[in-house]
Amino acid sequence: MPKRRRPKIDGERLPNHIGIIMDGNGRWAKTKGMARTEGHRAGSLAVRRVVRACRRLGVSHLTLFAFSAQNWGRPEYEVQALMNLLAEFIANEWQEIMDKDIRVIQLGELRRVPVDVRKQLQELIKATRTNRSMTLALALSYGAREEIIHVIRKLTRRGMKGKLNPLEIDQELVSDNLYTSSLPDPDLIIRTGGEKRISNFLLWQSAYAEFFFSKKLWPDFSVEDLYGAIAEFQKRNRRFGLTDEQVDQVQ
Ligand code: FPP
């Protein structure tokens, strides 16, 4: 097989936080005449590959959309298979996650996750809480609208107790109460599988993110593809609502 070229990227200008919507596992399996769950299994190998590559590169935060709040509506056997894969991933990768000093956190409604997987994940989160080389955020049972409602309820409760004046509610306070409070906003959001939509992922946080859409199905997404997405990100001109001249002055 010819060696694939790895696009050149500038190690000094990496996205601080990459978010990935890992789409296309089901279609990947279908093209191979396999069950959808086999696509998810192949998808978890891609997870491993991409986490390793991000850690090696020095990307400090990586968020993976592993299971959405809406995915609970999928057939029972598929939900079960995804939970089993997650449990397997935690067990198999535990040592490497520790060795590579990766902090794992979870975004979403953990209480909906089956108790055995939940406990395993909570143990991993606890064991890795002081790790510093990279943060791996697993968006699991996660929905961005649900997350925003969670913040509204939390702040409203505080207000009703007289502990919060509505005028104190600003962007910083909202960000500090999201599941992602310990993460910077994503700089780059990658979606595989050919669709161009955000599907309830990091809606608040992605206000100024750059988007990269890949036609590759997630199990086929390679380290070269990741480099390609980062190279494309590095060509973008991010203005955050300002003019080019203003941005040049700041840099
Ligand atoms: C979307 O593909 C993918 C998911 C709903 C689950 C993602 C899960 C994994 C990659 C594996 C396990 C995760 C970890 C962190 C170990 P789809 O099923 O919607 O694909 P389709 O659009 O082709 O049907």
The computed structural class is alpha/beta
Please give the domain count. 1
CATH level-4 homologous superfamily: Decaprenyl diphosphate synthase-like
Overall spatial form: globular
Unreliable stretches covering 5 or more consecutive residues: none
Major sheet, described briefly? 6 strands, parallel
Number of helices: 8
Q: What is the overall pLDDT average? A: 96
What ligands does this structure carry? Answer: farnesyl diphosphate
Name given to the CATH architecture: 3-Layer(aba) Sandwich
Please tell me about this protein's structure.
This protein has 251 residues and is of the alpha/beta class. It has one domain (17-143, 185-250): 3-Layer(aba) Sandwich (Undecaprenyl pyrophosphate synthetase). Helix content is 44%, strand content 14%. It is built from 8 helices and 6 strands. The chain has helices at residues 25-31, 36-57, 76-99, 115-127, 144-160, 171-177, 223-235, 244-250; strands at 17-21, 61-68, 102-107, 134-142, 188-191, 210-213. It has a 6-stranded parallel sheet, with helices on both faces. β3, α4 (115-127) and β4 (134-142) form a beta-alpha-beta unit. α2 (36-57) packs parallel to α3 and α3 (76-99) runs parallel beside α4. It is globular, with a radius of gyration of 19 Å. The relative contact order is 0.19. The mean pLDDT is 96. Bound molecules: farnesyl diphosphate.
What's the gist of this structure?
By secondary structure, the chain is an alpha/beta fold. The chain is 44% helix and 14% strand.
